[in-house]
């Protein structure tokens, strides 16, 4: 579960590299495509046919599976290309992956931001080879293959080669160097060597005409002999791919250790920006892993956009905006603010070039394929960035795009009628109007701000006053219960619509299964009737999916932060672990892992509102290195999770916030402004085993709150 992979990655880098089996969804592993129940095995063993580049992280059926440029060390003839060999003795570290193939070849991979370096240690053999397959793409599942449209490969001799393949409208170029003295270097097509040939050109490839093609290096090996293969990638041609390789690998040869050391240092810097104290070994491992997964995507390929000619940031693999906008984008804004700003600049440029802010953006040309999942989600990150005073963006120009984007897809119908179906888009668009209104008001465009804010109040059209839930509609990967507890910009009015604090809390209690019987989890190939019965329970999905990941914090708005503490603590303890199945669902490009990071810190970002909610943390202390300083979270009265004689964690002790101080002053609210967190300071939380009165009276802000008195505003 989680759908992550153990391959080599660089923090928010362009390139990854991993063993390739063709399995769903990353190309690594043994499982076939699965969206419900226990996944089925695609292969009986862990195996690989080579090592590929560009993998998804934590996605599901995204229909864009990359796995380009397969490199295969072989002892067999070229006819055996595509066969798989067993994997053993795997090692996975940040920026490094290694395994031994069943042929006895030890394989090591590392990556930089735009390069990958492979090191193969061969046994003695009269005709070993390294085969590079430029035709490879996608997965070995139904409808998972990616076929290049055009391609060009050139062998330049002396261990150098280059090529470009057009994959889904994107020209992916690679420049390659192989340290293989005395070996022959040849091009090949359809598993046949082209002796003496120096160039292959394919003007039009179809599924029916595709035959594998690439380059090969071949020669004898002594026991323990190593061959290093260096690959530089670019979306702007082979010359830029070569420049990328030279810049990151430097002049030293071999370059494996140099690149690995640099990437390891970058990971150390990024992972060091959030530190925790205390906790069991298992919980610390899960936390570090979650932080690592949170910093793999999006992929930044500066000055690499194939769609516009100018330099500047270019980001892709923003594959699950409907997940990451709630958790991961606020995390990036906090600990890598320069990259967060680059992402927004890139998304604004996408909007300028393609006509809309993407709901999902991959390394592919074409219309936004994820418009059904959500609307106006980038608006939340833009509103937060403006509230934080990010000066690197042209905010007047950004506002133009924010407003224009509100009329795209479902937005036109929302503009006309104030409600759209799927009904969740009504919430998205109302929230997007609220975010745009905040930016407009800050830029002194009061007339526009008033109009946007008035339309933002139409969120209520999505709800049935008779039930206090969303109206019946279609729902993406969920039901109306899953979406009914989203944290809106007017939670006070939302709770009033449900009948008040008590009624709203009772609905949440039912949703989270308080005092309910245990639920039976679906098994392998669950029938439709079994799945329908599960959905009919109208229960929290347990972080198996994204629609309700913020719902535990809805209790805060009803004056019950103690309930939030119970639900979050249970999720942190029982739904995450260090072994197989250690994530409760897709990691969603880091969205779920970012949830874990925030929940463990006792903070939760409310995207688009410049707001954090405060909860009992999972660790005794933590330090968040933000762009403006350090935000320190201290506790007193924290009790560690007990560990049994078998080494397993036991049920953790209940912990609730009894009182809080911020920079030494009493804090009576369960919320902080994001600016406060980003600026740095000390939050001290006194914890105890029983719920307290802390945070019950003063609620987080809502749109319908009366204007604050001057002394409160200060």
UniProtKB/TrEMBL annotation:
Region annotated Disordered, chain positions: 688-714
Top-rank taxon: Bacteria
Pfam families with a match to the protein in the record: Glyco_hydro_92 (PF07971), Glyco_hydro_92N (PF17678)
Domain Glycosyl hydrolase family per the UniProt entry, residue ranges: 240-688
Residues in Glycosyl hydrolase family 92 N-terminal domain copies: 2-234
Protein name per the record: Glycoside hydrolase
Taxon lineage: Bacteria, Bacillati, Actinomycetota, Actinomycetes, Streptosporangiales
